[in-house]
Design a protein that fits this description.
single chain; mainly alpha; 18 helices; about 425 residues; about 75% helix; Growth Hormone, Chain: A
Length: about 425
Amino acid sequence: MRPRVHYAWFVAAATFATLVTVAGILTAPTMFIVPMEKEFGWSDATISIAIGLQIALFGLTGPFAAAAMERFGVRRTVVSALCLLAIAEFSVTHVRYAWQLPIWGAAVGVGAGCIALMFGTTIATRWFEKRRGVVLGIFAGGNATGALIFLPAFGQIIDHVGWRPCAYILSGVALCIIPLILLVVRERPSDLDLPAYGATEVDATVPARVNPIKRAFNTLSEASRSRTFWVLAGTFFICGASTNGLIGAHLVPACGDHGIPESRAAGLLAAMGVFDLVGTTLSGWLSDRYSSRWLLFWYYGLRGVSLLFLPAAFGLGIVGLPIFAAFYGLDWIATVPPTVKLAVAAFGKVRAPLFFGWIAAGHQLGAGITAFAAGAVRSQIGSYDDAFITSGLLCLGGAALILTISRSVAALVPARA
């Protein structure tokens, strides 16, 4: 007799906890910019180099992480990455020179890149035949939950103690997640003689174990011949340029430019996290029922409108930023579930995580370039307004671009997968 609660939900819970932790590690640098500027005298552009490198490597690691999960297993890959993140967060407290920052950024980028997007995508495609969209939405919402849990607390800690205790906390939490992964997560449902959630038969098929670097580049070679791949990667580039690389990295210092303290700015990000958790979960539910192509059209279009509004929001007193936080937050990572579902439809369930790894690399490449560029713009002209407007216009372009996805591909997305 099978248990009433499918084991896939326990794996999903452990995955969600891990993604929340990684989200805290990824979003923490935005809280460190102003304290580091004050303590070391470094410019925003200098610190943004490390953040941009972190974000870019976070994405570029994804395809190789997906291949490593096939070759070495999910648990080994994730545990190794958590160890690297714990070491990186502990080490940053001993940074004294600007040249050391990119090393920290690179370590965080690689460690987080081995987990964040690929871990959730792999678990969702292996363990869930039904409710996959909802699960992807919940996993994407882990980013929001991480911001909600860590940023307000970090704002208070930085105001009263400094930024270093925040890094110690993140290092300790990363270490605490390791036993959870080892105890709960299994590679595939077939390891427990179970079908995936919603499936009727146990799938014992295991992909051949090949060199992960060769596997990743072979996938890229095949993907580069697909127009669908380039559209998804291009729109995800825009997604990264308008989320992690811009708002995630620079909203706190942008608020500081308008006299808003870090604790209040962190609270604003946390509020956006609440709306993001609702939005991404709802997006997963919608992607199980409606056209992923049209969902992405509306997501990119509405995000573009909110970013065009942001410069004006700073001048509307206590009303403007909460309106932006609610509107933008609902749409922050809502693009993930429909993008993954289009990738599964175009490239197949088994290979989708590898293809999505390269699509996600486009996301983080856009985020990394924007993180550096926005910091450089602020250093030169003293304002982020041009960066916000440029990203808003890019989002409107992404809305138009996503409609070029073939209707035949979009039609392959199951109505209730």
